Amino acid sequence: MKCSEFEHHLPDWIGDQLPFAQAQRMLEHHQNCGACQQASAYERDLRLRWQELPAPPVNPALWTRLAQRIDSAPPSRSRARFSMVPNWAMGSALAMVVLTCVVLSAHLSEHRLGAPPSYVSMTAPIDEHHIVQMVGEVQQLSDAESDTFVAETQVDRQEMRRLLNDKEVIR
Fold first, then answer.
1. Could you give the CA distance from residue 45 to residue 14 in angstroms, rounded to a whole number?
2. Could you tell me if residue 15 is inside a domain?
3. How many domains does the chain have?
């Protein structure tokens, strides 16, 4: 337990108003912390002095006098609910709300609420005949032919890299 938590719960602890588990934690902290022992002693002393104070004298006519003063007070001018906000600010805010409603209604009327959405294609138009023709021209290679093609392609790439490196050396 931290000292700040102890100080927060100190009045309830001294008044025996904490649950048992929390009171035990308070007691453990109190036994191990000198600063909190001083704070506890100060709180107990303050409570003792408060209890020793004499009770204020009871004036039986207090409530009668108070009621008479309330009844005889002149009626106060009622304050507007938003008295802290100037009238021009409230008018401006109202104008902005109306303007926003007008703009939104105009925008929504363009898009016809309740109408099904129009679908827009996100791809280029496809010529199906052209695609079918391209797929038909593809020839299936055997595994041996495929391996040979890949090996030739790698050799071609290596040759291209060598030539490019030679050109850079010449420069």
1. 11
2. yes
3. 1
